């Protein structure tokens, strides 16, 4: 127990329980990881690392990784910022760009950490409601604001908005920073990166944790114009010079360079997604049109909370939120076809009984 | 250029230039890295890593590394918190524990990031002056405060205070959190870890970047009582669940377990430090009594700024601050004996001419 006089100056936060780490035999469809390993080039880069050099600090500019990403996206190296997962990048974006008295805007149903970072940094915010089809209403983002952030595709809805939608929000907010969090865009379609030259208020963030099979190495990045990227670097360097380990830099660069493996991997996941979605629909499941590596589904006759628990008993892990608007939905990561078959077989047996 | 209307909400920070990354032939004595590679056990653990499993998120509890550290220090696993270098750990400590309206206290001459984090999180602070011998005056820390932090040994002074000094500060501050930043303690003597059971207001932080030759992997940790460690974890999990990569966890655990290598490595560095200090004294240098892996020296007849530049022309990199109180000092990392000999030979040639 902490004595009261010590306790009074300690930050109060909402308690959090880390995600479940199921045993090996489980079917883990709860954290949107990639079911396939990283590119074989990652192992090669890993083996080639000089561990003796670990005694030295890593390159604070993360040059090797920045260069690989710049080459991949055909932008300047001064247009890339990298961090320890996109959570690190996004958190730093909040700190750097959202310093207004006016509220920042993000959807009511979206990535849960936006609210957390806003609270942490004492940034005011408003959360326009998604409509009944879980879509953003773009006009909600035309009001005065201190910045805008949303994922595309959105999470956990899996819904992707086309670039004209993004562009409408950008053009109505020329005096606000707009961050498009593209954690899942590689499973979706065109990236807002195309708009970066035309909109100097746009920042796009992406991650290695999903489409590049590297959640375990913690790599994320932002792409924007050189001016905004310099602001991110200035803030980062001002309070933490070295964050990316030598191993992360080398493995990350290797992963980016193997484009063919990456594209093949994405194709397989999309194919499995479409197949699994079809099978679940046959069983009566209703769902959004997923453009991510997960499905957002409900069954009209079957309580989601109960289904979640029953799946868990079978060691099939999916995600469920006890929330007013999405409490009847499950979020199911697209795993291998074999994993999805185990899930679907379970659903066949259970929903048939309902 | 960023347009004014965008610029007005962007955080302003003091510009920072990352540390120099000299070429291979240089003698790099500027960032207090360890001149010896990590334990051979680190390479083994590294080679044994399953890179395919990088597709999965790392263990958010960092169990493997926490367990190794707890075993090493004979404390409970619930008494260890790990982070991405001790900068990450310390920054999170500021955020978690320094939430008072009263100022926190740290020395005027000390690790420069304390001031940065206090500014970043809007924590008021006061900086009691070190005395003319660069020692902390413990009575300065007996006044009302919102928390206390100092390194032991202090940086860049290299001065170590014995445990009775630390204990006096702890016992006069039972209602404040006191953080002892022991980045360099392995080169010094007894750690304040001994005091943890007796003082529930004490947090000790250490790092893998110096004595464990792992700056490149970014690992730091805090040790305290279970109550305070839980507060750190609660705050960390509330806004960033996964920070330590799978590679860092495995390599860190391996490094901790090889105690013999670690101790041998420390002994070599201390031996080189004492030898180099003696040689520099023969040349007329004046210095503090170093208990760290660096020397803090000045030459009565030789301007430190000029010496710094001349060394740099010879590709010998040390550290110099253009600061009122320490502007005549250089901070010189203790490298290998060969590296120190190159430095001392240069000093012989140059100070002889003055």
Your description of this structure?
Chain A has 354 residues and is α/β, with parallel strands linked by helices. Chain A has two domains: 4-30 and 260-353, Aspartate Aminotransferase, domain 1 (Alpha-Beta Complex); 40-257, Aspartate Aminotransferase, domain 2 (3-Layer(aba) Sandwich). In chain A, 37% of the residues lie in helices and 12% in strands. Chain A has helices spanning 4-7, 40-48, 63-73, 85-97, 113-120, 163-171, 226-239, 246-257, 259-282, 304-313, 337-353, and strands spanning 27-28, 80-83, 104-105, 125-126, 148-151, 178-181, 202-207, 220-223, 286-287, 294-298, 316-317, 330-333. In chain A, the strands form four sheets. In chain A, strands 2-8-7-6-5 form a five-stranded mixed beta sheet, sandwiched between helices. In chain A, helix 3 packs parallel to helix 8 (246-257), helix 4 (85-97) packs across helix 5 (113-120) and helix 4 packs across helix 7 (226-239). The longest helix of chain A is centred in the C-terminal third of the chain and has 24 residues, at 259-282. The first copy, chain A, is globular. The mean pLDDT of chain A is 94. At the A-B interface, helix 2, helix 4, helix 5, helix 7 and helix 8 of A face helix 2, helix 4, helix 5, helix 7 and helix 8 of B.
CATH superfamily of the largest domain in chain A: Type I PLP-dependent aspartate aminotransferase-like (Major domain)
CATH architectural arrangement of the largest domain in chain A? 3-Layer(aba) Sandwich
Count of discrete alpha- or pi-helical segments spanning 4 or more residues of chain A: 11
Q: Could you tell me which chain pair has the largest interface and how many residues each side has?
A: A-B, 88 and 88 residues
> What is the end-to-end distance of chain A?
48 Å
The CATH topology annotation of the largest domain in chain A reads as Aspartate Aminotransferase, domain 2
Provide the number of structural domains of chain A.
2
Q: How much strand of chain A?
A: 5-15%
Helix content of chain A: 25-40%
Order of H and E elements of chain A: HEHHEHEHEEHEEEHHHEEHEEH
């Amino acid at each position: 127990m902490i004595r009261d006089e010590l306790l009074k100056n300690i930050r109060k936060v909402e308690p959090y329980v880390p995600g479940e780490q199921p045993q090996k035999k489980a079917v883990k469809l709860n954290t949107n990881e990639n079911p396939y390993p990283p590119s074989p080039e990652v192992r090669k880069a890993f083996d080639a690392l000089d561990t003796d050099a670990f005694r030295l600090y890593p390159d604070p500019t993360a040059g090797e990784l920045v260069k690989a990403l710049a080459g991949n996206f055909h932008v300047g190296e001064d247009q890339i910022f990298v961090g320890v997962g996109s959570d690190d990048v996004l958190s730093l974006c909040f700190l750097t760009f959202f310093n207004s008295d006016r509220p920042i805007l993000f959807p009511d149903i979206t990535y849960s950490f936006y609210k957390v970072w806003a609270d942490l940094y004492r940034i005011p915010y408003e959360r326009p409601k998604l409509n009944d089809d879980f879509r953003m209403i773009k006009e909600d983002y035309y009001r005065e604001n201190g910045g805008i952030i949303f994922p595309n595709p959105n999470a956990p809805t899996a819904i992707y908005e086309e670039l004209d939608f993004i562009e409408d929000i950008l053009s109505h907010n020329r005096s606000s920073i707009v961050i498009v969090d593209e954690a899942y865009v590689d499973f979706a379609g065109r990236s807002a990166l195309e708009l970066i030259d035309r909109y100097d208020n746009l920042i796009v963030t992406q991650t290695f944790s999903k489409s590049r099979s590297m959640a375990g190495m913690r790599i994320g990045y932002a792409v924007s114009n050189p001016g905004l990227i310099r602001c991110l670097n200035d803030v980062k360097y001002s309070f933490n010079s070295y964050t990316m380990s030598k191993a992360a830099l080398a493995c990350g660069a290797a992963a980016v360079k193997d484009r063919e493996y990456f594209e093949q991997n994405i194709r397989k996941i999309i194919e499995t997604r479409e197949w699994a979605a079809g099978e679940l629909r046959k069983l009566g499941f209703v769902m959004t049109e997923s453009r991510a590596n997960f499905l957002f589904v409900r069954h009209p006759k079957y309580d989601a909370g109960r289904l979640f628990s029953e799946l868990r008993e079978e060691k099939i892990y999916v995600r469920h939120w006890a929330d007013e608007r999405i409490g009847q939905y499950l979020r199911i990561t697209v795993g291998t076809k074999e994993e999805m078959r185990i899930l679907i077989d379970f659903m066949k047996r259970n929903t048939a009984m309902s």
